[in-house]
Design goal:
The complex is a heterodimer of chains A (147) and B (289). Chain A has 147 residues and is an alpha/beta fold. Chain A has a single domain, classed as 3-Layer(aba) Sandwich (Rossmann fold). Helix content of chain A is 36%, strand content 18%. Chain A has a five-stranded parallel sheet. Chain A is globular and about 50 Å long. The relative contact order of chain A is 0.22. The mean pLDDT of chain A is 88. Chain B has 289 residues and is mainly alpha-helical. Chain B has one domain. Chain B is built from ten helices and no strands. In chain B, helix 6 packs antiparallel against helix 10. The longest helix of chain B has 33 residues. Classes of the chains: A alpha/beta (147), B mainly alpha (289). Chains A and B meet through strand 2 and helix 4 of A and helix 2 and helix 7 of B. Bound molecules: iron/sulfur cluster.
Chain lengths: 147, 289
């Protein structure tokens, strides 16, 4: 049994979003939706986190930061692109400094579109991310046994 | 108390301590959630968290961090073993402090600025609660005529009758020891951010899992200290002690949920003031009257 899915700790990073999606991400974690029912905890520390929630598009300024946070997270880890900006660049896609969605910087596991992304959608995305987390956890275990 | 009883006690505590501590932590989270109008996680959530942490990739900034944390856990188990096998209370206090020191060393060894802030704050917390804890041991000796915890089982009234002022003092510093708000300066369980996660900033995966287990054991030990005040020769007193421990833990959860974090200056001054008044007056009273 994999325990990764039972305690998904999330870290939230705001790329170049309009803040709409960030407010929704935080709303998802507030008592009304109570993410802790599923063991979700909002951490501020990439080393403790399992799920990386990115809002907003990737640009020249923040690509390094996103990669740094991703690299500091421990396997198994999952990336969720929150909002259409994070998925594809959204309304900002043709700005001179925007490189595109989060997948321009790091591998993305779950895309949660919407402008802004709704808490219900985000919870669905986190649940989908949790399934991916379990798969990765099992793969890691198998690799450890093989090694 | 022989070495053998301590050893057996430690082994038993190494099994029972984490189990009880884990359930306590789970109940803590559920009750906290209910106080905030939420449903909250399952009671076994802390167990799931730790199992997950042990499944994570093993990454560490250096090789000694894990050793320090393992030592901290080991000494916490030993302290619990000494206490619950009825051993020397003073020794138990020293060993649990040694465990805290190893934990601080682990944080300092990472050289991370956030971990160092946490380690400095943890040191301040140790400095704040230690006088009261030592006075508790002294007062215990005056009340029970022995440093051995097992001595309470021979008394015809609980020690809280003679050292109730010390009990109130211990109640005050218990909030610091349990890392509850308003005194969760070094390592908060809520609203995780870098500075607030302090000591554990650089700890991850299995090492963080060990830290969690250590906290469970510590919490059980500290609640044991609270229970100790209410036990006497009558076996029924153990039930009373457990009820009071449950009540005190509920009070701590309530405090945790209702008070904002204070600055270290306030924590330090208030804890020493309480130690001086509650501990000092009680000890002096027993010594000179
Ligand atoms: S998807 Fe919409 S709400 Fe979200 S960051 Fe982009 S523009 Fe803002």
């Amino acid at each position: 049994m994999a325990f990764a899915s039972k305690s998904p700790w999330v870290i939230h990073y705001d790329g170049s979003s309009c803040n709409g999606c960030d407010i929704e991400v935080l709303a998802t974690l507030c008592p009304g939706f109570d993410g802790e029912r599923f063991g979700v905890i909002n951490t501020g520390n990439p080393k403790h986190a399992d799920i990386f929630l990115v809002t907003g598009s990737v640009n020249e300024q923040n690509i390094g930061v996103i990669k740094e946070i991703y690299n500091q997270m421990l396997e198994p880890k999952v990336v969720v692109a929150c909002g259409i900006c994070a998925c594809t660049g959204g309304v900002f896609h043709d700005c001179y400094n925007v490189l595109g969605g989060v997948d321009a910087a790091i591998p993305v596991d779950v895309y949660a579109p919407g402008c802004a992304v709704r808490p219900e959608q985000l919870i669905d995305a986190i649940v989908a991310g949790v399934a991916a987390l379990d798969e990765k956890s099992a793969a890691l275990k198998a690799a450890r046994k093989g090694a | 108390m022989t070495l053998l009883t301590t050893l057996i006690g430690t082994l038993l505590f190494a099994v029972a301590g984490p189990v009880v501590g884990c359930l306590l932590a789970g109940l803590d989270r559920v009750i906290s959630a209910r106080m905030q109008g939420r449903v909250g996680p399952p009671v076994l959530q802390p167990y799931y968290d730790v199992r997950k942490l042990f499944e994570k990739e093993r990454v560490s900034v250096n090789s000694v961090e894990g050793v320090y944390v393992a030592c901290a856990l080991l000494f916490a188990l030993l302290a619990g073993g000494i206490f619950f096998s009825g051993g020397n209370l003073l020794m138990c206090v020293f060993v649990i402090t040694l465990s805290s020191l190893f934990f601080i060393m682990a944080a300092y060894s990472t050289r991370s600025p956030y971990a160092e802030v946490g380690a400095a704050r943890e040191t301040l917390q140790v400095m704040s609660y230690e006088p009261m804890v030592l006075l508790m041991a002294v007062a215990f000796f005056q009340a029970a005529n022995s440093f051995d915890v097992a001595a309470v089982l021979r008394l015809d009234h609980p020690i809280v009758c003679t050292i109730w002022l010390v009990f109130l003092g211990v109640l005050f510093i218990l909030t610091i020891k349990l890392r509850k708000s308003p005194f969760d300066l070094a390592l908060s369980h809520h609203a995780h951010q870098e500075i607030v996660r302090g000591v554990t900033t650089e700890m991850s995966g299995p090492v963080l899992g060990m830290v969690e287990i250590m906290h469970w054991c510590e919490n059980v030990l500290f609640m044991g200290w609270i229970g100790m005040f209410f036990v006497w020769a009558n076996p029924v007193s153990i039930v009373i002690a457990i009820l009071i421990v449950a009540l005190v833990y509920f009070l701590e959860i309530w405090i945790d949920n209702n008070f904002a974090r204070v600055k270290w200056q306030f924590m330090f001054k208030s804890a020493w003031l309480v130690a001086l008044i509650a501990g000092g007056v009680n000890v002096a009273f027993l010594a000179f009257l």
